[in-house]
Specification:
Layout: H1 2-24, H2 38-42, E1 53-54, E2 65-66, H3 72-82, H4 85-108, H5 110-120, H6 128-138, H7 141-164, H8 166-171, E3 179-180, E4 185-188, H9 190-224, H10 247-259, H11 265-273, H12 289-312, E5 326-327, E6 330-332, E7 338-340, H13 364-377, E8 395-398, H14 405-411, H15 416-436, H16 451-467
Parallel strand pairs: 4-8
Antiparallel strand pairs: 1-2, 3-4, 5-6, 6-7
Helix pairs in contact: 1-16, 4-7, 4-12, 4-13, 5-6, 6-9, 7-9, 7-14, 9-10, 9-11, 10-11, 12-13
Length: about 475
């Protein structure tokens, strides 16, 4: 009898174990393209999967095989929205635009001075100031500025969309193969390089090359010429306001400009594209920010100085009027005595009216200085404290196949609506699990067909013990 009971117990335990294993074992992932590198995902606070799995990510609709979990979308939104990555990127580009616009607006104000000097010297055959004024007018900054401002906006919109695609790119199961961890390289596609070229080449051509020459020309003009167009050969433009362009940047831009429509354009523009950085906004695409701000202040001061000289120039003073002279609210009597208006006196016992104190609004220059300090040390994405892979140290390389970051950005839907949808779905899913938690084997609906068999086996054992 004991032998029979032991055999029956062994059979029951083996049978039950086989049922549990067959019903609770996770299915293998769907045809993984490659193994996900979870260390990359962990670096930005994501959990990730070991292998890419088929998943519909609401925030990344173009991702077919995902290295991210559904819950990772909440972290993505938290970083991008609550962590103010998107907001800071918008503010960064607004600051950049304001610097460039302030510079161009200041340059436009030089135009009337150059016209005035040229007109005064039109009969003079040889004049350094006349030559400088003519070159300034030839640049046509008034016509260039509106188009260049719009080009700057377009470039910023492009880069914002590209950076917006960073998280969805990390989630995509196809992209981790393009991270070279040994050499610290990220491989981007030829198509992404084409988009960078189309959206930034025109702006970089002006800020790295054309403006370098033009600003030095304008600075020399304002430093050495007075309101009459007299050239001071002892005066010189301060080195603080002299611009130099990097030989490497100049070569990359001019080479790309020359061959941008050539069949070999990618070879010639690759150097320009490789200035792009995944986690930081490259200084190549934001040249001379601090110096442009300082130079605009220099322009404003020199323009004011020349205008004051022109206003006080004896050659420009009108002849004094005959008879009674009214000047600064003062009058001269017939006998030449100065009659001044009596100041208004307050009534006895009257309290002086209190002036409300208005909060002084920060000037444009003050705001630019504050942003200058803020964005100098602030990156676009902040890695997690437990980051294993320092992606911010990775350099960009371009070849096919590679990552098309701009396409990920265009398709990304990291917004409040998707956040609520994902959160609701995860809560609903978690609620179902909680309802069945603790019910053990019998709470699993996948093994309902085996319930009767297990109960019958247990009944046999108890009957055996009872009649023993």
């Amino acid at each position: 009898m004991y032998l029979k009971k032991n055999i029956l117990l062994v059979f029951l335990l083996t049978f039950t174990s086989s049922i549990l294993n067959s019903t609770t074992e996770k299915k293998p992932p769907i045809a993984p393209i490659a193994e996900c590198n979870q260390d990359i995902l962990i670096s930005y606070g994501l959990d990730g999967n070991r292998y890419p799995v088929k998943a519909d990510l609401d925030m990344c609709p173009t991702v077919e095989k995902s290295c991210c979990t559904m819950a990772d979308q909440l972290t993505i939104y938290s970083n991008w929205a609550h962590g103010k990555e998107a907001e800071n990127l918008h503010k960064r580009f607004k600051y950049h635009y304001n610097v460039y616009a302030h510079l161009m607006n200041s340059l436009i104000k030089v135009f009337p001075l150059a016209q005035m000097i040229q007109k005064k010297l039109e009969k003079k055959k040889v004049s350094n100031c006349k030559v400088l004024a003519r070159k300034i007018l030839h640049f046509q900054i008034k016509d260039i500025a509106p188009k260049l401002k719009e080009a700057v906006r377009t470039m910023h919109e492009f880069f914002f969309d590209s950076y917006k695609g960073m998280y969805c790119m990390l989630c995509d199961g196809f992209t981790h193969q393009y991270f070279n961890l040994k050499r610290k390289r990220i491989i981007f596609s030829e198509r992404f390089c084409r988009d960078i070229t189309a959206n930034s080449l025109h702006v970089m051509l002006y800020f790295h090359i054309h403006f370098t020459k033009f600003l030095n020309l304008v600075g020399t003009f304002l430093s050495t010429c007075d309101n009459r167009g007299r050239f001071n050969d002892k005066a010189a433009l301060s080195p603080v306001y002299i611009f130099h362009s990097s030989a490497k940047a100049r070569e990359e831009i001019e080479q790309c400009k020359t061959f941008r429509n050539d069949p070999n354009w990618f070879t010639m523009c690759k150097g320009l594209c490789q200035n792009f950085n995944l986690t930081k906004y490259s200084t190549f695409f934001q040249p001379h920010l601090k110096k442009y701000r300082m130079y605009a202040e220099f322009l404003a001061a020199r323009i004011r100085h020349i205008k004051v000289m022109e206003a006080n120039d004896p050659l420009n003073q009108p002849p004094p009027p005959i008879g009674r002279l009214l000047q600064n609210n003062n009058k001269l009597s017939k006998d030449g005595r100065l009659l001044t208006a009596k100041p208004a006196t307050a009534k006895p016992g009257a309290k002086p009216a209190a002036k409300p104190k208005k909060k002084k609004k920060a000037s444009l220059v003050e705001r630019l200085k504050l942003n200058e300090k803020k964005f100098k040390r602030l990156g676009i994405f902040r890695s997690a404290l437990n980051a294993i892979i320092p992606i911010d140290l990775f350099k960009s390389r371009f070849k096919d196949p590679g990552i098309d970051l701009y396409s990920f950005g265009q398709a990304s839907l990291i917004d409040d609506a998707r956040y609520k949808t994902v959160k609701s779905a995860l809560m609903k899913k978690a609620g179902k699990k909680i309802a069945t938690r603790g019910s053990g084997v019998f709470g699993n609906k996948n093994i309902g067909v085996y319930t009767t068999t297990i109960l019958t086996a247990l009944a046999i054992v108890f009957v055996g013990f009872k009649f023993d």
